[in-house]
Amino acid sequence: MSGTAVVVGGGIGGLAAAIGLHRTGWQVTVLERAAVLDDAGAGISLAANGIRALDALGVGGAVRAAARRQYTGGTRTPDGRVLSRMDGAALERALGTPMTGIPRAELHRLLQAALPEPCLRTGVGTLASLADADLLVAADGVRSGIRAELFPGHPGPVYSGSTVLRAITAAPVPLDTDFELTWGPGAEFGHIGFTDGRAEWHAVLAAPAGIRHRDPLAFLAGRFGDWHRPVPELLAATRSEDVLHHDIHELVTPLPAYAVGRVALLGDAAHAMTPNLGQGACQALEDAVVLAAELAAGPSVEAALTRYDAVRRPRAQSVARAARQAGRLGHRLSHPLAVSARNTALRLAPSGATINAILRHANWTPPKLP
After folding, report:
1. Which of 169, 188, 185, 214 is nearest to 42 (CA)?
2. Which residues contact 304 (CB under 8 A, 6 or more apart)?
């Protein structure tokens, strides 16, 4: 089955959906409001399920070539004590592919390169409707206008209680690990290394929504300056104008469906989740592959989207719940007794516990696309 499709949203999920549809014979147009995506200056870790989805879409090889494999890392306390270690080689043996880190801008570029140039239209201020196509894919993000139209009674996204500042360093920074998280009371600091020696860092804080800082780097230096290296070095290698600051919103109330008629919801529009498991983009990539596979199987758009909903909604909503719980046990803990109990439990956990936790969500096999 094929036809004309309009994808609203040119982020990772929207571009991946367009690739899947294009590869299976659809005529696709991607509409993106922004001229430049607001997360382009950040980085991303892709677990095995995300890489497998990219493989199914035919772009996995290009992404692997541009990404840094994550073999070393783990979780620490602000003074540098190790709480848990990530064995990337063991994960690769278990899943057949390693976790990887890549700048979001580079991932966007590779996804765009897999589409014919006329497919993507940026700076588009109006939304599409089914009058424009046989299929409408809503990949328009956490504040999806299409979701609001389809489910006017749904409360929509809510503030998670956490805000994130992040940036990519302007210069290479010596790193001992490929990927790392550090948990302090009410705060998390993490980094992802890239192939060129630069790194993305993020600082997640439990804080009221809407707070912004005149000099974000000065604020962060005061908040994290006495944490273990390379936290101060990462901040020192960053330009103030490169720091992004976003409040984290999520869909706490699950949607009753990811498809209505000939409209499919995908990515954050369907299941915006907290970033505590690093699964937001990976789940969007899974959505894209399943959507293309079900539409290719026919016999009608409506039937295919019914199957898409049945496959994707239980899994994505389960991952979203797990991400929310991970945040509660991670940076959102602030009481000294609770932090101490969490840290002790992590240090005493079996060596394979971290691997098993990642496998629980990353061990996914994509359907084959024709």
Report:
1. 169
2. 1, 294, 295, 297, 298
**Helix 353-362 crosses helix 48-57 at what angle (to 10 degrees)?**
30
Q: How close are the terminal C-alpha atoms of the chain, in Å?
A: 11
Q: Per the domain annotation, does 129 fall within a domain?
A: yes
pLDDT at position 128 is: 62
DSSP labels, 309-335:
HHHHHHHHHHHHHHHHHHHHHTTT--S
Q: How far apart are CA 347 and CA 339, in angstroms?
A: 12
Q: Cα 275 to chain center, whole Å?
A: 7
Domain with 255, as residue range(s), is 4-71+97-156+251-330
Domain containing 278 — which CATH number?
A: 3.50.50.60
- Mean pLDDT in order along the chain per 10 residues (370 residues): 93 98 96 78 94 98 97 96 92 92 96 93 71 92 96 98 97 96 96 97 96 96 96 97 97 98 98 96 98 97 98 98 92 91 90 80 94
* CB 217, CB 240: distance < 8 Å: yes
* d(C-alpha 68, C-alpha 46), whole Å: 10
From edge to edge, which strands make up the β-sheet containing 263-265?
120-122, 27-32, 4-8, 135-138, 263-265, 259-260
User: Which two tokens mark 134?
Assistant: 């046989």
Structural domains counted in the chain: 1
- Give dist(CA 228, CA 81) in Å, integer: 9
Residue 201 lies in a domain: no
Q: How far apart are CA 120 and CA 20, in angstroms?
A: 14
Per-residue model confidence (pLDDT) at position 47: 96
pLDDT of residue 129: 64
Residue 297 within any structural domain of the chain: yes
Residue 213: half-sphere exposure toward Cβ, Cα within 13 Å: 19
Q: In sequence order, which residues have a C-beta less than 8 Å from that of residue 201 and are 6 or more positions away?
A: 166, 167, 169, 189, 190, 191, 192, 231, 234, 235, 238
Q: For residues 111 and 20, is the Cβ–Cβ distance under 8 A?
A: no
Which residues are CB-neighbours of 167 under 8 A, at least 6 positions away?
A: 41, 42, 200, 201, 238, 239, 242, 243, 244
Q: Looking at the whole model, is its pTM more than 0.90?
A: yes
H runs (alpha helix) in 82-184:
88-95, 104-113, 145-150
